[in-house]
Amino acid sequence: MKKIAAGLAAALLAVTLVGPSDGYAKKTSVAEIDKQLKKLQQEVQAAKAAQNKAESRNQEAQHYKNKTTLNLQLVLEQIDQVKGEMKTTSGKIASTEESLNVTAAELDEAEARVASREKLLESRVRLMYTDGAVSYLDVLLSSKSFTDFLDRADSLKMIVDQDQDLLVQHKVDKQTVIVKKKELEGQYAQAKQLYTNLESQRSVLKEREAQRQELIAYYDKEIQDTDDISEEQNAKLVQLASERSALQVQKDKIKAEEAARKAAAAKAEAARRAAAAAARAKASSASSSSSSSSSSSSEYVGGSGPFLMPVGQARISSPFGPRTHPVTGEVGKVHTGVDFAVPQGTSIHAADSGTVIIAEWWSGYGNCVIIDHGGGVWTLYGHIREGGIKVREGEQVERGQVIAESGSTGRSTGPHLHFEVRIDQKAVNPMPYL
User: Fold this and answer.
1) What is the dihedral sign for C-alpha 393, 310, 316, 408?
2) 8 Å CB contact between 251 and 76
3) Which of 26, 52, 164, 418 has its CA 20 to 30 A from that of 310?
4) How far apart are CA 67 and CA 76, in angstroms?
5) What CA–CA distances, in Å, run from 160 to 122, 163, 166, 245, 300?
6) What helix, strand, coil percent values describe the chain, rounded to 5?
7) Average pLDDT, the chain
8) CA-wise closest residue to 185 among 106, 100, 108, 101
């Protein structure tokens, strides 16, 4: 896009420097020039429409970029939160694993006790199977005395109680093993599942982060593309304005030649009219000079350079050169002119005599006037208030003439005058000229 804009600027420079030849001017009629001017006006309208569309897209992209950036910040905060939960859950998993290791040792001991009891019971059953069933009654009846009977009864009771206790402990230990193992395995599985869920949630959030980053990159490209389109249309509008100015000069030249031919046919009448016109012009000039002198002494003060100060000795609120744009916030953007801090409706004066080539809304400048002073030198006056333009395209203006009133249209944060000096379409520091 920038290469296209550069090409348009180069073409414009060629048109400005070369201009229409005398031979072409003599062959072209005023009607043909009017047709070309009409065609140029249509191209100007198309270029402005394209520029307005690009600016609208630029603002929309900037809006969605800001919205997506805020959304991205929320996603990043959620990712940090999930990371913290994952860290906590990982600690729980490690703690559960440690508990499992401790319990595993306890379970091994319990299982060893169960195995030992099972072995004892198996040996007793084996003994009963080998020796046959022993009748507790036979043991008691074979007692030799009552004391012996009581001793045998106590022994039998101890054996029976021991067998019963072994069976109960066996069941309790086995049940303890099953319950503890199941409980710990459940806790471990729950922690692992929670960690898996958090990992899945984190993956989803990372995908959202990537999507937001892609959207921001897309909107950045959209903003850059529309900026390039706007610059391209600006260059095209400048080119069309220059062509229109050249055609207007050519048209004026043809009309002058036609007037000369008519004057030659009626010499005496032309001489009389010329003398009368000269007298009127002299009187008008004297009146205008007196009025201008009075106005300058009371309202308007010029500078010391070759150009007049467009709003007198007003304070400069923003000089020429790199700065942070007050509206877009872009850092390092070159300010192509100087801003004069003046109230709304302050009279703006032409810095020098010339031809008005732009007197309408023009991109970020808002309502704008551009004057061609000849030799590739232009001056630009931006952010003029609504209804504040006092001249029209093609009009010849005089040095110090009021051409507009200050305002805050276009990309502006408050009432002021944005003033530029352009040499062969390139903006230069205006201060040496004021």
Assistant:
1) negative
2) no
3) 52
4) 15
5) 15, 5, 10, 127, 128
6) 65, 15, 20
7) 76
8) 100
